[in-house]
Design goal:
Enhances Ca(2+)-mediated inhibition of inositol 1,4,5-triphosphate receptor (ITPR) Ca(2+) release. The chain is globular and about 110 Å long. By secondary structure, it is an alpha+beta fold. Among the domains are: 169 residues, Poly(a)-polymerase, middle domain; 203 residues, Beta Polymerase, domain 2 (2-Layer Sandwich), CATH 3.30.460.
């Protein structure tokens, strides 16, 4: 018994000595050559294993000699219970050793490499905040007036022109469609940065969504990832849309949810009613041999319908219309004879129940996000509620509040940095989400125009924290503090929060590129702002100072 305990302690002590966490990281520096360190650790591990075998051999020899002495003194037959106890301690020792060894190898191959990569980047990033040169109020105000306001004055006129043309185009689309067989198109709605007044980067692009519905007697029945059924993590934020007859009681019959035996028949839904010809469902833009709406089929239908509609009304206009991207259903470009052009997106969407949440067929994607799970999975957009929330909260803020100014400056800086060092995983939607969270967290008076500098720092701090934790939650999903005036669906408020930075955990190369870009943006912030700043009296230029985050 004591010998068994001694063996267990020996194995544990050996594993602890062999563990890379024995020496704290604070007392060392990050190794430059990780492969050389790992090779040295493997050699040390081999030597420790040899030493362990030698010690075990010595212990075995001592035990053997002790047994000989005991047998010489007194010959006692070993009972079966003692053998079982001895075997138990031996087996337990081996199990403990194997578990610790597996844990050590996993740490060495995984976290140890991360220590030289991601965590090192975040340590440098934190230091960069403490020493970043941050422009003062006068410089920021001059930059905003010259670079932001000076280039966004024509947005209202552009929105008016695009909306008027889109209404005319959709009216022509309705006239060329077969109302008994084709989808019914509703009026378009403007969403995104152009309609929330914070777009700063050219070219200005208007985003319009177009709800559509199936012809009678059909209807859409949707299902989201938070509706009760289990969805894989990569399908969170998505849903499916089923095309059904309006008189079908899909929710009230289990035949659609349960696999019935070959010799069983649903009395409510006969085979003639449940199985429709494949061509009929494909005409309703469904995926082959299913009742689920196919985003690719919708894109083809919409592009053909837009082309027919333009051919009908093109004689009324003195410009050309073309598709700028064929991977999106309605990425259109108006080209005038003078050579100037205007781009806008006309995207078909499906309404979620009676709310202003929409399933969007194709969503602008960055390198951070993977492809759609399938063409029958539709992304949910809350763009209408986001626009309403900004309008609602703006009524409670001081006059000329700085929330939009902060978002515009941050969007400009990040876009400028990406044009220098290449795209990153951050998007303008992430930046807007940061602003929405801070609008809800900070008191209204904190957004006064004189607090532009402080609020911009808050947004950078918040974004740095989210990057460090790889967590940026969707503003609406899982947020129980959404104002009741918005009429936001309760099912999404009660859902689990959706982490927009979850792909960073899966794609380390994109994460490191994003961190590097953010780090470079902080370093170049003053230079980028001063490049577009008008001359300021000497008394103010000294205001560029080191700001401790």
């Amino acid at each position: 018994m004591p010998v068994g305990i001694f063996r267990v302690c020996l194995v544990v002590i050996t594993a602890i000595v062999n563990h890379p966490l024995l020496f704290p990281k604070e007392n060392g520096t990050v190794p430059e050559n990780v492969e050389e360190i790992i090779q040295n650790m493997k050699e040390r591990e081999q030597s420790l294993r040899l030493e362990q075998l030698r010690l075990e051999q010595e212990i075995a020899d001592q035990e053997a000699r002790q047994k000989i002495v005991e047998k010489a003194a007194q010959v006692v037959e070993e009972s079966p219970e003692e053998k079982v106890r001895w075997d138990m301690w031996t087996a337990l020792s081996m199990v403990i050793f194997l578990l610790i060894e597996l844990w050590r190898q996993d740490f060495q191959e995984g976290n140890w490499q991360d220590t030289g990569g991601e965590e090192d980047d975040m340590a440098v990033l934190g230091k960069a905040f403490k020493g970043v040169s941050f422009p003062d109020k006068a410089v920021l105000a001059s930059f905003y007036e010259k670079r932001i306001l000076g280039t966004t004055g024509d947005m209202a006129r552009m929105r008016e022109m695009v909306e008027g043309f889109a209404d005319d185009l959709l009216e022509a689309l309705r006239s060329v469609c077969n109302r008994d067989a084709d989808m019914e198109v509703e009026d378009c709605m403007g969403v995104g940065s152009m309609y929330e007044n914070w777009r700063v980067r050219k070219p200005f692009v208007c985003d319009l969504i177009v709800p559509f519905a199936p012809p009678e007697p059909y209807c859409f029945r949707s299902q989201t990832w938070c509706s009760g059924d289990s969805f894989p993590p990569d399908e969170q934020g998505y849903g499916t849309i089923k095309v059904c007859r309006a008189d079908e009681d899909v929710a009230g019959c289990i035949c659609d949810k349960t696999k019935l035996g070959e010799d069983m028949l649903c009395l409510l839904h006969s085979q003639a009613n449940t199985i429709r010809p494949s061509s009929e469902m494909e005409d309703l833009l469904c995926f082959k041999n299913t009742q689920y709406l196919d985003a690719d089929q919708v894109m083809k239908w919409f592009q053909i319908a837009v082309t027919k509609a333009w051919n009908r009304i093109s004689h009324k206009y003195e410009f050309d219309l073309s598709f700028s991207l064929l991977d999106l259903p309605g990425a259109l470009k108006i080209k005038f004879r003078s050579g100037k052009s205007i781009a806008f997106n006309l995207t078909p969407v499906v309404q979620y129940e009676n709310s202003d949440v929409y399933f969007i067929s194709h969503f602008p994607r960055s390198s951070l996000v993977a492809d759609l799970p399938s063409s029958t999975h539709w992304f949910l957009t809350f763009a209408v509620y986001e626009r309403r929330f900004i309008q609602l909260i703006s009524k409670t803020l001081p006059a000329n509040a700085c929330h939009i100014s902060c978002l515009q400056i941050l969007s400009f800086l990040h876009g400028k940095q990406c044009s220098l060092t290449g795209p990153s995983g951050l998007t303008n939607y992430h930046l807007k989400t940061v602003m929405l969270h801070l609008l809800q967290a900070c008191p209204s008076q904190d957004w006064a125009p004189e607090n532009l500098e402080a609020r911009l720092q808050d947004m950078l701090k918040f974004l740095e924290k989210c990057l460090h934790e790889k967590k940026l939650y969707h503003f609406f999903i899982g947020n129980g503090r959404v104002p009741e005036e918005l009429g936001f669906p309760i099912i999404f408020q009660r859902a689990e929060p959706l982490n927009l930075f979850r792909p960073f955990v899966l794609h380390r190369d994109v994460y490191r590129k994003t961190v590097d870009t953010f780090h470079e943006m902080l370093r170049n912030m003053s230079a980028l702002i001063n490049e577009y700043t008008v001359h300021i009296p000497h008394a103010h230029t000294n205001g560029i100072h080191k700001e401790s985050f």
